[in-house]
């Protein structure tokens, strides 16, 4: 392996970029590193795209070409240190998502309620920029408060998060659509919001709602990315 | 796990940049029950220092030995490991599976 390839792989990793190292096990062809944004021109584009989607390394079927897949670790940003969030955090963790919680209401965002979690008792416009929200981020707005959720959602649109969900009934969401439109968000961006949040499994308790949200996040990740 | 995989390749690059001979071993195929998934890495330097794993510890010793050979020759190798019973004179996988490990030098 050329050290330049190792470097490219490590650089992609540091930049939270998906990348695939292509290796010919028979040593006939030199290896290469393909990043997600350079897929189009690659002869193995289809196989590489599929590998990035599943996050699994493996041989290209019926060949001696091995794909080493490197996908950035998934993050989860939750706006609102509420009851559902308490149920959602351990669930997200067990599935490999590193959660961050933001809520400017200091009564909610306490270490007592959220032990061992990265929690920011700040407004989203202060807390979000340093977090490097990106397309490998699931973004979940649960405060019910437009002052807090709306600016956060605008940030999520801008960063192209693979999942954007917001708590609220259809009626609440209709008002949200109107407000976000008024703040310059495109109809296309607004349509990306999953609301009412979560898969429709008849969830009632906060834990059940957390499960329905998590299931929707997994669906978006496995069926949508790359 | 992904994060630690990254640290492994980061370490391989750091060793190589420090002028060490380095090999990267990757699990490229598994059959039956295998301890580590396809894509798992073990990196080895010329002194036999290693990081990561390609099995639950069953075959690492042999992979390290082969890696030193690869570092010396510069020629990549494809190693296969099966259950210990079949190849009693070699190390094997107690779990009963088979794995293929590709070992190449960083140059």
Automatic annotation (TrEMBL), chain A:
<dbReference type="InterPro" id="IPR052698">
    <property type="entry name" value="MoCofactor_Util/Proc"/>
</dbReference>
<feature type="domain" description="XdhC Rossmann">
    <location>
        <begin position="76"/>
        <end position="217"/>
    </location>
</feature>
<dbReference type="InterPro" id="IPR027051">
    <property type="entry name" value="XdhC_Rossmann_dom"/>
</dbReference>
<protein>
    <submittedName>
        <fullName>XdhC family protein</fullName>
    </submittedName>
</protein>
<dbReference type="Pfam" id="PF13478">
    <property type="entry name" value="XdhC_C"/>
</dbReference>
Automatic annotation (TrEMBL), chain B:
<feature type="domain" description="XdhC- CoxI">
    <location>
        <begin position="15"/>
        <end position="82"/>
    </location>
</feature>
<dbReference type="InterPro" id="IPR003777">
    <property type="entry name" value="XdhC_CoxI"/>
</dbReference>
<protein>
    <submittedName>
        <fullName>XdhC family protein</fullName>
    </submittedName>
</protein>
<dbReference type="Pfam" id="PF02625">
    <property type="entry name" value="XdhC_CoxI"/>
</dbReference>
<dbReference type="InterPro" id="IPR052698">
    <property type="entry name" value="MoCofactor_Util/Proc"/>
</dbReference>
């Amino acid at each position: 392996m050329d050290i330049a390839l190792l470097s490219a792989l490590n650089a992609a990793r540091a930049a939270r970029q998906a990348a695939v190292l292509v290796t010919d096990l028979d040593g006939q062809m030199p290896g290469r590193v393909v990043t997600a944004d350079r897929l189009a021109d690659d002869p193995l584009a289809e196989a590489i795209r599929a590998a990035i989607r599943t996050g699994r390394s493996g041989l290209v079927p019926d060949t001696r070409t091995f794909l080493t897949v490197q996908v950035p670790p998934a993050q989860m940003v939750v706006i609102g240190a509420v009851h559902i969030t308490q149920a959602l955090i351990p669930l997200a963790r067990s599935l490999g998502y590193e959660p961050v919680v933001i809520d400017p209401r200091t009564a909610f965002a306490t270490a007592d309620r959220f032990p061992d979690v990265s929690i920011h008792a700040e407004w989203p416009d202060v807390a979000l920029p340093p977090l490097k929200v990106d397309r490998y981020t699931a973004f979940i707005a649960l405060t019910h408060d437009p002052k807090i959720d709306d600016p956060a959602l605008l940030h999520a649109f801008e960063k192209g998060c693979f999942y954007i969900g917001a708590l609220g009934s259809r009626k609440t969401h209709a008002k949200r659509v109107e407000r976000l439109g008024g703040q310059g968000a495109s109809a296309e961006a607004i349509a990306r919001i999953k609301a009412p949040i979560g898969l429709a499994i008849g969830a009632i308790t906060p834990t059940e709602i957390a499960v329905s949200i998590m299931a929707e996040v997994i669906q978006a990740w496995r069926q949508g990315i790359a | 796990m992904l994060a630690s995989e990254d640290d492994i390749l980061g370490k391989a690059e750091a060793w190589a940049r420090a002028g060490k001979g380095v090999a990267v071993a990757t699990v490229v195929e598994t059959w039956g029950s295998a301890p580590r998934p396809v894509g798992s890495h073990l990196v080895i330097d010329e002194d036999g220092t290693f990081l990561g794993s390609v099995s639950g510890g069953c075959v690492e010793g042999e992979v390290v030995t082969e890696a030193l050979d690869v570092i010396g020759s510069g020629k990549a190798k494809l190693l296969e490991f099966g259950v210990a019973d079949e190849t009693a004179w070699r190390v094997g996988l107690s779990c009963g599976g088979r794995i293929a490990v590709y070992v190449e030098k960083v140059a």
